């Protein structure tokens, strides 16, 4: 019964209770499906190669337990630096994508002007064509700007990559903001900037958090642009750094699993920070 | 969130400035080596570069490998934009020839080190007319079969020399033990073509004679030799592991090193992996011949070369490095550091690894050839090499007959290749 | 597609407009639009021995009529449609269900569930490819033993290696990975629905089912439409999972080839196949047009009919 109290609010009637049990049952079942493969990864990150393949489902035993993967990752690669690079690039790019994306989404949905349709279409195009296609031109541009092997180049490209989706999703959310709110402010002669930053932006928080999460994942996991634009030792990101354990004929799975297991932690932290906004959005919506 | 955002611009500027500076510091006088051999990173930093720096302490070398599957595309992009390294590791034949034709690789004619290589070794990196050399040969790989000696002893098996013996051994392993007789999968497709078709085929198409026949148009892929090669591959199916259609290359390696499989169709590069991972003794045998006394043929494939980026600012230093790579010293270092990759230079090199010794000894007993799809024949559309992967995997899976495989590849070749039309 | 029905009184020069739009647009134009157009234009050229020559629509005609190219192209397109259908039938309904359950009032542990279910979406495709191949592998026995233990052992097969089942299996993996995205988007919208609307409906005696179908569903329809468009676009650009699991040749016998892998092979080359930036650009342009037409049709037939609500 104690266990039940974790899942159920106090003072629930029988009907509510059975409903609650069903909801928890379904969510729990899906959580297991979502987590099972991840548990296998984490479990096997703590085993040696033979331990992994002799019995992938077994928990690490005294015989198979091994930190050799983590050791290799920490000793043979500059994991801390790679993680810092990834974090810096991701946070900067995501921060700018949601800020610039919200501003652009607001401009495109709120104001009517001649080039609106064209610009809207240009942004839509970015969702539909993979930016990888433009690799050679992008690299040429970066070479000319003398930005090869800098994190700046990655931040710039990721902003360009993330903006279209951000503008699209945020525009959808801007449309649900009541017009009266903005018009009342205009009647009080509030400037357009203050309308956006003090009224609109707070209302967009949950949507911006969602966009942040979606933008962050492909950036964090991207291998291609770090490989092309910033492959040097000092600017390597985690995903690229891990690739040194993926060989032509032999892949050092213990190290790959260890490195990628560690690489989940920073994204998880970022995700938690962003998803806080989701809940705050709920309460701020109720106050309004 | 807003606080973070509004704080961003100033933070951003500070970050950008430091990053820019970091970028500037990169442009030093170091030779950057582009390679797909991530596997060799430690050998370069621990062995090769220190040995070179003993002779030339002033030339700094930085080995910067790219994950193998992305190497060609990443290198292409970097060369086009002008950010590629000084020394380029060359894939054999057309992949590098195209880079040379596009002006990305430096012509190496007259490089002193080239004198230490035979024409056959150099053939993978010259223009079709044989006039211009654009990469220095570095290493070749040999195909064959690696077997688990303990399992062979346990089941009282002898190493097969002919195909009859080969299939008898497989049948015996299958009926008398729970070991997987033949350890290969088709999930990645390339093993079917490389460790299968190109491994056993030279015995059928008589090595170089057959390969050149395809190029000059006197032989066809529908000839008996090729159909028979696929027929033999089709006979492998019952001896492969259960669910081999989803068995990856790395699965095959693990299956073998865990001692669960008896015979492994191999490339000599596997020696290094198995040395590190297997705790039993293993040996090797060349592809079995049709009948006792036949000449044996092996695939001794020129696989790695080294060239110079035509846009490099350090060409002289790069040439010094390449000349050193042609030396006996480098050959010996490399062959023993990476057993299974065999030096191509004329120097006699002492190889210490027993399995690698076995592989290289076949050069004396058998006739050598290279993979038949590599020179010229994979230039057009459809691409012969891709087709070979696809049809060989399908023949083993049993979703295509050997005759269909032959017809499909021959038709592909006839579509664009003059001598076959 | 993002037409505004709002109006605004005219002002001399809309500085604020460009302050809002300018910075993002500038970066986007420089690092995305220009490189993309610069590359797409190559589809009208042919490259021979380093010389490019304008050839008009020749590459496109080759792509859809020349047997060597067209069979691969149509095959990839048809696989892609199946891949998309699978996501629409599985990923989005599951995402919707999870989002609705997560937003039930007073649900304990909601944020834990949300985080855990979203975990697969955050993982690198390298891990996902590795672990699912390990689980489904006939050699290491995880799924086979599991099926035996529930008495379905005879149904086990090397799914990832068979022509008939490889694409479906990969679709399952992809759905598993990305279910978090529709879930999060729909969840964010559900959070935005003011409680008083729901309360009013409950006070009026509506059952939870009725509340869902009459109140919540119409309110989240625009989000579902958006999720569908995003799924469509993402599926037609899908590449990484197939590449990580099956390689660029997308075997067996191209049964898992999608437009993304076909484009990669064509544009960057593969093994001994030389990459062709002109043919590759033609494939990419065609992909873009397919997606564009799909999105337009969707907007025209569906989005127009969806009413938007403002709270």
Automatic annotation (TrEMBL), chain A:
All residue ranges annotated as the ABC transmembrane type-1 domain in the record: 83-274
Claim: Transmembrane is one of the keywords in the record: yes
GO cellular component, one term: plasma membrane
UniProt xrefs under CDD domains: TM_PBP2
Top-rank taxon, per record: Bacteria
Subcellular localization(s) per the UniProt record: Cell membrane
Record PROSITE patterns: ABC_TM1 (PS50928)
InterPro entries: MetI-like (IPR000515), MetI-like_sf (IPR035906)
Transmembrane segments: 21-46, 82-106, 118-143, 155-174, 195-220, 253-274
Main location: membrane
Biological process according to GO: transmembrane transport
Keywords of this entry: Cell membrane, Membrane, Transmembrane, Transmembrane helix, Transport
Membrane topology category: Multi-pass membrane protein
Entry-linked PANTHER family: ABC TRANSPORTER PERMEASE PROTEIN MG189-RELATED, ABC TRANSPORTER PERMEASE PROTEIN MG189-RELATED-RELATED
Family designation: Belongs to the binding-protein-dependent transport system permease family.
Protein name: Carbohydrate ABC transporter membrane protein 2 (CUT1 family)
Organism in which the protein naturally occurs: Marinomonas aquiplantarum
From TrEMBL, chain B:
Keyword Chloroplast included in the entry's annotation: no
Pfam families xref list: SBP_bac_1 (PF01547)
BP GO annotations: transmembrane transport
Recorded GO CC terms: periplasmic space
The keyword rRNA-binding is annotated on this UniProt entry: no
TM helices/strands, residue ranges: none
Entry keywords, A to Z: Signal, Transport
Signal peptide (residue range): 1-27
Compartments where located: Periplasm
Family the entry assigns: Belongs to the bacterial solute-binding protein 1 family.
Purpose: Part of a binding-protein-dependent transport system for a sugar.
Entry protein name: Probable sugar-binding periplasmic protein
Automatic annotation (TrEMBL), chain C:
SUPFAM superfamilies: MetI-like
GO terms under cellular component: plasma membrane
Residue intervals of the ABC transmembrane type-1 domain: 77-300
Cell compartments where the protein resides: Cell membrane
Keywords recorded for this protein, A-Z: Cell membrane, Membrane, Transmembrane, Transmembrane helix, Transport
Pfam family name, one: BPD_transp_1
GO BP: transmembrane transport
Top-rank taxon, per record: Bacteria
Keyword Cell membrane: yes
Topology relative to the membrane: Multi-pass membrane protein
Membrane-spanning intervals of the chain: 12-37, 83-103, 115-135, 166-188, 219-239, 279-302
Similarity remark: Belongs to the binding-protein-dependent transport system permease family.
Name of the protein: Carbohydrate ABC transporter membrane protein 1 (CUT1 family)
Native organism: Marinomonas aquiplantarum
